[in-house]
Amino acid sequence: MSFDSLGLSDALLKAVADQGYSTPTPVQSKAIPPILAGKDIIAGAQTGTGKTAGFSLPLLQRLAENVDIKARPRKIRALVLVPTRELAAQVHESITIYGKYLPLQTQVIIGGASINMQTRMLRHGCDIVVATPGRLMDHVNQKNISLSNVEILVLDEADRMLDMGFLPEIRRILAFLPKNRQSLLFSATMPGTIKSLAATILNNPVEIEIAKQNITADNVSEQVYGIAQGNKRECLSYLIGSNNWKQVLVFVRTKHGADRLQKQLIKDGISAAALHGDKTQGARTKALEYFKTGKVAALVATDIAARGLDIEELPHVVNFDLPQVAEDYVHRIGRTGRAGSSGAALSLVSPEEAHLLGAIEKLLKRQIPRVSDTGYEPILLNVAAAPKKIAPAKISGRKDYRHTDKKTPQRGNGTSYNPRSDKPKSRANSRP
Ligand code: AMP
């Protein structure tokens, strides 16, 4: 199938061609025609499938069909709700790129940025608003924004918005929208909460399912390293340094853990930045920019901050801590191997996390290959075991098989880095 056969206008086909897209992805070929026909849709599609263009292209086309370019101020005719600031910025950028030949204006409304500046922008008006629910509600409460002309509503990554506790805001925002509108819901997973939300907001929707739910991309190679918690940092520094990885996204469980690991990597001679919800928006944008442009090799992130990140051809993802929720494993490793490129995802799994690995493998319905020679004492991962408390770090020392006789395990320092011993995990600040 080609883009020409989907019913898109020349202006949009030209913008798509400028991007170098030759064929629509499955979510695009399934979603674009019904959206152009004015239908509601519910689509089970993960990030990396091309879903942003899947809703942005037909949305732009429908708005452009009857745009009043003389209207002052412009009325908001489309609202795209997303869970995170980073995703808002990316969706805004995509809509701007796809709509570059159309007379439509898009604004982004996110927390962590000046509310006064946003208020001024809103006074000028625009056609499309991409927003995170919390900040949008602030503007609604302050009567800075009118949503009464919204013709199209998009809920992107709806499951994550609910995970983040945005359901009350979403419900309040819905009350300000016209009943007669087109609604599009995208979600990587379809738990009961999403289905009931869909039932209240969608009208006879077209259902679209892309690939099988919760199945990871074929072009991502996955590996599990069984390793003591206290050896993880040294192992990570060693892997990055000895393989000369230039771009690796490292997932940790907590904000505090992200900051700590970033500092430790820097001490080990690896350029690193941290990305989590306690950072200011400026710091988050800078960390991401440094990572995307190769100024830092490692970005240490929590799940929420990293959700929806689109980094072209990201080669490596490391799970430094396994996620508590099995579905997050799929989202995490979906950061690599996007739009057809290949990637590698490595999970450092301590015996205390074996049950989490068990839950992930149950979800995937397959075993993730184990690396037998990790350079450390072999660790047995009993995936059927009951959850255990994460033990304080205990250093057993890297057996650096690459540099020494296999039979004489040595403690640490097989690299030119400066791996130091880890400290026990703090319980403070344990939220992502
Ligand atoms: P998304 O799932 O929307 O985050 O998109 C993932 C990536 O796929 C982005 O980098 C897009 O630029 C890219 N992409 C979207 N549509 C296509 C397409 N038809 N062909 C090639 N790449 C695409």
Description of the molecule:
The chain has 432 residues and is α/β, with parallel strands linked by helices. It has two domains: 3-210, Rossmann fold, CATH 3.40.50.300; 220-391, P-loop containing nucleotide triphosphate hydrolases (Rossmann fold), CATH 3.40.50. It has helices at residues 10-18, 26-36, 51-65, 85-98, 115-124, 133-141, 158-163, 167-175, 192-201, 232-243, 255-267, 281-292, 303-306, 326-333, 354-364, and strands at 41-44, 78-81, 106-109, 128-131, 152-155, 182-187, 206-209, 220-226, 248-251, 272-275, 298-301, 316-319, 343-349, 370-371. The strands form two sheets. A seven-stranded parallel sheet has the order 3-4-2-5-6-1-7, with helices on both faces. A seven-stranded parallel sheet has the order 10-11-9-12-13-8-14, sandwiched between helices. The chain starts with 9 loop residues before the first helix and ends in a 61-residue tail after the last strand. The model is unreliable at 391-432 (pLDDT under 50).
